[in-house]
Structure formats: C-alpha cells, structure tokens
Amino acid sequence: MIAAQEPVQRPLDARLLVVDSRGRITETPRTRWLDQMDAGDLVIANDAATIPASLHGVHLATGAAIEVRLAGFTSQAKGATVGPIDVRRFAAVVFGEGDFRTRTEDRPLPPPLKTGDHLAFGDLSASIEALLDHPRFVSIRFAGSSAGIWEGIARRGRPIQYAHVTAPLALWDVWTPIAALPVAFEPPSAGFVLDWKMIRAIRERGIKFATITLAAGISSTGDAELDRRLPLDEPYWIPEATALAVRTRAAGARVVAIGTTVVRALEHSAAVHGMVRAGDGLADQRVGHGSRLRVVDAIISGTHEPDSSHYQLLRAFADDETLVRVSAALESGAFRTHEFGDSVLIESARQSVCGSSHSRKRRDDLVATAA
C-alpha cells in the first residue's frame, strides 16, 4: 500500500476492495459502492465536522516553540452530550518545534512540562491542568469564555496533519459533505465516500440512510506506547430517527457503518442498553478480535496498516486469515492508505449464516460477475 498524498476527498479513480461474509475478495470502483447494497439495507454515517485541532504556540516557561494537538474532551463525563461542549478543557498531545512535514514518529518531545505551565497561541492562552502519564500527553485548560475560545481555535488552529500529505490542509479538506456539529479532532474520513448526489441515489434505490455524531479522535500520537491507548474515549449522540431505523429494519436487512466511529457508537449503545437507544453516550470500549457485533453487519472504511487501531476494529468483522489476504490484496494492488486513500467494504462473517437468502444470492451473483 502507498499513502495517499493529495487532499482529494473523493478521487474519481478511488477503488473499493469488497470482502463478503464468506471471505471472498473482489474489487470495484468506489463510485460503485452502492451496487453492494440491497434495498432495505440501512447505511449510517458520522456527521461530525472536524475542528482545526493543531495549534502552534510557545511554552512560556522556556520560550520553546510547541505544537499542541487537541485529542479529546476531558470535561466529558459518562453519558454527557457531544454538544454543547465545554471547550475550556481538552486532552492534548504536545510536540516540540516543527510541523507536519516531519513524520509524527520523528517529532521531538516538548520541553519538560509541569502542571500550571502556561502556553500561548497568539492571543489564545492555556495552562497545563494535569500530566497524563506520558511526556507528550496532558490535560490543558484554555482561558476565557467558550465563545472566545472557539474563536481563538478557529483563528489560530489548523487541521491535524501527517507527513504523507505534502500540501497544507485547509479546513474544508477535512470536512465530509454531511459535516454538521464541529466535534471531531480528525475527520471521520470513511464519510468521504458520500456526496449529496450519492445520498439521493441511496434513497432512490430503497436503501435507508441515517446519521450519528461521534467526536472522532486522533489516529496517531507518534509514540508506540501512547498509540496503544487509542482510540481515546469519544462522546457520541444517536438521534431518535437513527435508533428507530436500526430497531425497525426489515428482516435480513443489514446495518452498514460508514467508518469505525459509527461502529463504536452503535455497538456501545447496544452493549449498554441491550439495543441501540437514542441519546448520548461515551464510547469507551475496544472493538476488535473477540468482540460480539450486536448491530453492525458490514463496514466501509479506509485502508489501514495492521498496527493501527482502525485495523484492529476490522478484526471484529473478519478473521485474521481473511484480513491477511485483504492486506496482501491491498499491497499487491497498490491501494492508497489513510484518510484520502481507497476504501474497503467488509461484511461480517455472521452474515453467511444470518443474512437473507436474497442478499446472499445477489452478492454471490456479483462475485461471479466480477470473477
């Protein structure tokens, strides 16, 4: 696989690797992903908008240049809402001098940080509220009113960016077409498969469409030990219409998650309440090998390396042998990785037993045609 280097959300040449419930692998243009859906299927996407969560400033105690990447809402308690949000307090990853042009893994540590240290980002200021058991990981508290903090972040911040994308990102580069509430720290990038024309086509084909909102966190800290904590706890909100659509879908109809964040929200709600319930929650679970999927039958996701938290979630949908074959197909086919890359669609293995006979026959026909 190769990293996608250009901030193009929906490249016309994007590809989709399809893995059905029996582990069979085919390839199709990503623009044709709707052909993999059946009438009655329920497609659910995350409508969170991405905030400019990278702030460059100064550590006032030493005068050293730093970059702070906001990573989570530390003021969120279990059951708290994703909005309105207390924007005074965040979990954050702090780097020393430099920017996205240096690989995250190679970024220097910040100067030694202590509780009470002050940070300045132009006219936006913050202090370190707590150290979170790692030299780069802290809780920070911004000074001022919520409105002033939002204004300062909007003016001083930039989208979090990694070295594989060579051109500086603009904020609109990291917003999906359905972006709404600004609560994500990095884009729920699986949603780049969507546009408004596609959503209209979804409805015209008798496929259902719904949304959730989850405050998607960061995908990498540059430190292996800290990366093992990912994903951090993420607040979410499920609308009543979405919960009802999940509960009342027709027998044999699949729930198809656009991205790992949707899986986390739906599966957390079902685990806590016994079913998907409307309202707020805090996704604090790990979904992966050994997880029981109560709700989601298939996932559309970006392509990711095996050491990433996104890849680990895919282990809930397919066994390791299948995922090894998927990785080999992605590698041999030079698929593009990361947020602006190609995509995979993986159907849960349980669908080979639980799926409707119509759905199985249709997908068998698609596989035979592709072969």
Write the layout of secondary structure elements.
Layout: E1 2-3, E2 15-19, E3 25-29, E4 42-46, E5 49-50, E6 54-59, E7 64-72, E8 89-95, E9 118-121, E10 124-134, E11 137-142, H1 146-156, E12 182-184, H2 196-204, E13 208-214, H3 224-227, E14 234-238, H4 240-248, E15 255-258, H5 260-273, E16 279-283, E17 298-302, H6 309-314, H7 320-332, E18 336-337, E19 343-347, H8 351-354, H9 357-370
CATH-defined superfamily of the largest domain? QueA-like
Q: Which assembly state applies to the chains in this document?
A: single chain
Most strands sheet: 9 strands, mixed
Spatial gap, N to C terminus: 23 Å
CATH topology of the largest domain: QueA-like
| Contiguous helical run count | 9
CATH class category label of the largest domain: Alpha Beta
CATH-scheme architecture of the largest domain:
3-Layer(aba) Sandwich
| Mean of all residue-level pLDDT scores | 90
Instruction: Give the strand line-up of the largest sheet.
Output: 3-2-19-17-15-4-13-14-16
Helix content: 10-25%
Query: Secondary-structure element order, as H and E?
Result: EEEEEEEEEEEHEHEHEHEHEEHHEEHH
Spans of at least 5 consecutive residues with low confidence? 356-363, 366-371
Q: How big a fraction of the residues is strand?
A: 25-35%
Radius of gyration: 21 Å
